[in-house]
Each structure stands twice: as structure tokens, then as C-alpha cells.
Design a protein that fits this description.
43% of the residues lie in helices and 13% in strands. By secondary structure, the chain is of the alpha/beta class.
Length: 287
């Protein structure tokens, strides 16, 4: 395999499972120095050692972080900056569905907190590195479920009355809006931000210490024969993070390496700006 990523510094959240692990494996095989964000020390260490053995690449390390806690994300970002003075690729990939939304430790609905605010906080905490690294890229994992989302800036961060799938769809809609506004914030730099949907992937997605409920579990079970592999699901992620063809894309929502049209709400520039401002306020309150 070509070693075209030697010297590149990459940070991946959600790197111990599914498409995050598949992408991390590819990055390592191609010579990048990769930092994995993991929640469980034993599991994360096991994955790092496994990847070192399978890729023959030693430039892999990890930072432990509970992505449901905004203060811990800020700490993890500072730890990363103490180790590195550049960031070529940030991959915001960790995500989960819940049987029933609940408020997390910061007081925000946990699906929105983990799937959107964690992306926002990690990215903004590392924005100085991203801006100064030539041709840096930010890649965020959204979902085709964004079409089921409905973002209400006043209600969504605290709303535990919606279904798990609806809360998930709204968080994935927020990923697209975040990407659009992030690209605007990166104007004047060489950095680009894009997001993508991986399709239905055959992984342990959804397993975050909570029962998904019989209906969601049934949907996942029935969909398994039609699901793509983690490697297939990671294809657009890797393409956005590394390919020359994707270098000109800015603030786009991608499906199968092509620009896709998301839900109407995801195209609202004012909503994207307002979501950014709200996210800043929510992260500030969680200090």
C-alpha cells in the first residue's frame, strides 16, 4: 500500500468501532500518525495494540475522553495540543442512538450532546491548529437519517419527549448545519470541512451502555443482510480526508463520494449561523 500519509497528523473520535476503526486502520497503513479518542481504557489500548500489529505502524496513540461531557472534551483537546503543533485531519465520527432520550450530565439531551455538541466542542477547541495547518480537513459523520430530523433551537437541546430515532435524525441534521457554518468560519484559510453519510453499516452502532428497545433492535436485525461493511461505510470518510479530488469540496454533504442534497432545513444558512451561536453558549455553560 502507498505510504502517502507519512507526516500527517490525524485525530479520530469513535475510532475503536465500526467505520472509525476502519478509517483509522487505513490511515495507519498509509503512514499517518493517528490519535484515537476512546472512552474505555482497556478497550482503547487493545485496539491501538491490535492496529499496531495489523498495520506494522507504531505511530498510533490514544486519548481517553467521555464525549458526553463537554469539559472532558476540552481537556482531551488540550492534551492533544500538548503533543502536536498541527492537525491535518480531524474526524468527528463518534455517534449513537438511544432507546429514549435523557438529559446527560451537562443538562442537555444526550443524543444532541454526543452527536452534535461533542463535534462542535472538539472542533472549536482545536480550531487554532486546524487554521494554521496547511490544507487541513475536518470530516464529520452525518447520516441519511438527517431527513427525519427537525431542529428547534429552543427545544432540541433539552427535549426528552421525542423518540430515539427522531432525536438521532435531528443530531445528524445538526452535523450538516455545523459543517456549513464551520466552512464559513474557515474562510481565508486553506482548511476545508465536509460531512458524509456512510449508509447502513454492519457495526455495533447504538451500543453505548443502553438498551435500544425491541423495535429499534428488530429494525437493526432485519437490516443487517443489507448493511455494508465498516470498510465500505468508511469509504467516503477516507476519500474526504485524504483524496486530491475532495480537496476542492467546501461545506458539503457527501454520499458515496458525491455531493448529495440534504433535508431543506439543512440548507438554511441563517439556521446554521444561529446553531453555531447557540452551541457556543451551551458549551460555555457546561464549564
Amino acid at each position: 500500500m502507498k505510504q502517502d500519509l507519512i507526516g500527517k497528523i490525524i485525530l479520530v473520535t469513535g475510532a475503536t468501532n465500526g467505520i472509525g476503526k476502519a478509517a483509522t486502520t487505513e490511515f495507519a497503513k498509509r503512514g499517518a500518525s493517528v490519535t484515537l479518542i476512546g472512552r474505555d481504557q482497556e478497550k482503547t489500548e487493545q485496539i491501538v495494540n491490535e492496529l499496531k500489529a495489523s498495520t506494522g505502524h507504531s505511530h498510533l496513540d490514544y486519548i481517553l475522553c467521555d464525549l458526553t461531557k463537554l469539559a472532558d472534551i476540552r481537556r482531551a483537546a488540550e492534551e492533544f495540543k500538548s503533543r502536536h503543533d498541527r492537525l491535518d485531519v480531524l474526524v468527528n465520527n463518534a455517534g449513537v442512538t438511544f432507546k429514549k432520550p435523557v438529559l446527560g450530565s451537562d443538562g442537555y439531551e444526550i443524543t444532541f450532546a454526543l452527536n452534535h455538541l461533542a463535534y462542535f466542542q472538539m472542533t472549536t477547541a482545536l480550531l487554532d491548529l486546524i487554521r494554521k495547518t496547511p490544507n487541513a480537513r475536518v470530516v464529520s459523520t452525518s447520516s441519511s437519517m438527517q431527513a427525519r430530523g427537525k431542529l428547534d433551537l429552543a427545544q432540541t437541546p433539552y427535549n426528552t419527549e421525542v423518540s430515539g430515532p427522531r432525536a438521532y435524525g435531528t443530531s445528524k441534521l445538526a452535523n450538516i448545519l455545523f459543517t456549513k457554518e464551520l466552512q464559513r468560519k474557515l474562510e481565508g484559510t486553506s482548511a476545508v470541512a465536509n460531512c458524509f453519510e456512510p449508509g447502513m453499516v454492519n457495526t455495533s452502532f447504538g451500543a453505548f451502555g443502553t438498551d435500544q428497545g425491541w423495535f429499534i433492535n428488530l429494525v437493526y436485525t432485519l437490516a443487517q443482510p443489507f448493511a455494508v461493511t465498516p470498510e465500505q461505510g468508511a469509504d467516503s470518510l477516507i476519500w474526504l480526508a485524504t483524496s486530491a479530488e475532495a480537496a476542492s469540496l467546501k461545506g458539503q454533504y457527501i454520499s458515496k463520494r458525491k455531493i448529495a442534497k440534504p433535508a431543506k432545513q439543512a440548507l438554511d444558512d441563517q439556521l446554521a449561523s444561529d446553531l453555531w451561536i447557540l452551541s457556543e453558549e451551551l458549551c460555555e455553560k457546561a464549564k
